[in-house]
Automatic annotation (TrEMBL):
GO terms for molecular function: ATP binding; nucleobase-containing compound kinase activity; phosphotransferase activity, phosphate group as acceptor. This is Uridylate kinase. Its main location: cytoplasm. Residues 81-94 have a biased composition (Polar residues).
Length: 355
């Protein structure tokens, strides 16, 4: 009201005209004066205080001000608004034409979309809360450092076997490189005992009554290295069984995959003869694992686990290969060739050391 009265530039309003204006305001209608097109129209007020654009325009609508005193932005918005409000069809038969006040619109009609949006939002929010309430949070993967599981104790009184009596060859290479396939060839021709660390772990995982089943399962799925205590005990027990049966030559496939495993195994079980390392690019290994995954039933023969296993191999297992290489104990074979070609290379390189 104060705003409406103050800026009236020239005309002094009579009491009667003040009454008319104040009545028009009490009907929540505003009067505005705009130069192009020159008209005085009434437009409905739409919750002015809540909307920044309208609060910016309110002084224009409320006050009878000459166009020259308005900022260009305000003017252009006001002009657009005038044009659109003039083009709106009215069906009430009220006075029309230039300068004629437009009938006020029913404000109740404007409120319902907001009410609808509010209730829809409230219902959706309640549904989200309800959905979250009873769902268990996913368990993070087991971490060695935080694992409360008691791991098997390893002896520290030196190797249990002598390297003269028990021959161990480590077989390393990326996931799916073909270690298992080449080991099968060597078993056939040279009568090795083939111990795959991965197979022993999977066997233990599905053995009834094992206390490490869940732990192994989580590590394998995540492509991480199972704590060495578990793997070394499994290998040592398997070796003891074979030695008791008179077999003393072992291919240990997919082990050691981490430096601590390498050092500990040689400390408490037996020092290795050498490491057969199959080198291969990830693209070839991906194709092989994808093919194997069709029938293997392995929980880690899928694209997601595969990527994790590649990373673990590069970051954790390659240092083992490099460590033994520094000791001149690595025989490197190109694993990207065909099965037969790779096996021919193996024999050419190490046949004399396999007997
Ligand atoms: N694994 C392990 N320690 C090992 C060997 C294997 O923790 O010394 C786990 C690891 O999670 C690995 C999985 O067993 O990704 C499968 O190993 P495997 O040797 O069967 O894989 P491959 O090389 O045959 O693809
Ligand atoms: Mg394997």
């Amino acid at each position: 009201m104060r705003c409406l009265l103050k800026p009236l530039p020239t005309a002094s309003l009579s009491a009667r005209s003040l009454q008319v204006v104040s009545r028009s305001i009490s009907k929540r209608t505003f009067v505005r004066y705009l130069p192009a097109p020159q008209s005085i129209v009434s437009i409905p007020q739409v919750k002015p205080l809540r909307r920044p654009l309208q609060s910016q325009l309110l002084p224009t609508y409320n006050c009878l001000r000459p166009a020259s005193s308005l900022s260009p932005t305000v003017l252009s918005v006001a002009r657009r608004s005038t044009v659109s409000s003039n083009s709106r069809p009215y069906t009430t038969g009220h006075i029309s034409g230039p300068g004629a006040p437009r009938p006020p619109r029913d404000n109740k009609l404007k409120a319902w979309p907001f009410v609808l949006i509010f209730f829809t939002g409230a219902i959706a929010f309640a549904a989200v809360l309800e959905n979250r309430k009873d769902k268990p949070r996913p368990m993070p993967p087991t971490d060695t450092s935080s694992s409360s599981k008691e791991l098997p104790k390893l002896r520290d009184d030196g190797p249990i076997f002598s390297p003269e009596a028990v021959k161990v060859i480590f077989v390393l290479g990326g996931p799916g490189v073909g270690k298992g396939t080449q080991c099968a060839n060597l078993v056939k021709d040279y009568h090795f005992v083939h111990l795959s660390a991965g197979d022993l772990l999977r066997e233990e995982q599905s053995r009834s009554g094992t206390e490490y089943g869940e732990l192994i399962k989580t590590y394998i799925k995540e492509g991480k290295i199972v704590p060495m205590e578990v793997t070394i005990v499994l290998l040592e027990n398997a070796m003891k069984r074979s030695i008791a049966a008179g077999k003393h030559k072992f291919l240990i496939d997919g082990f050691p995959r981490q430096m601590d495993q390498a050092l500990k195994f040689e400390d408490v079980v037996v020092p290795s003869q050498f490491t057969l390392f199959f080198d291969c690019d990830e693209e070839t290994m991906t194709k092989r694992i994808t093919e194997r995954g069709k029938t293997s039933g392995r929980s880690d023969d899928n694209p997601e686990s595969m990527l994790k296993r590649f990373r673990t191999f590069k970051e954790t297992s390659m240092p083992v290969v490099n460590y033994f290489d520094g000791l001149k104990k690595v025989v490197k074979i190109d694993g990207a060739k065909s099965v037969d070609a790779v096996y021919a290379d193996v024999k050419a390189h190490v046949a004399d050391r396999l007997k």
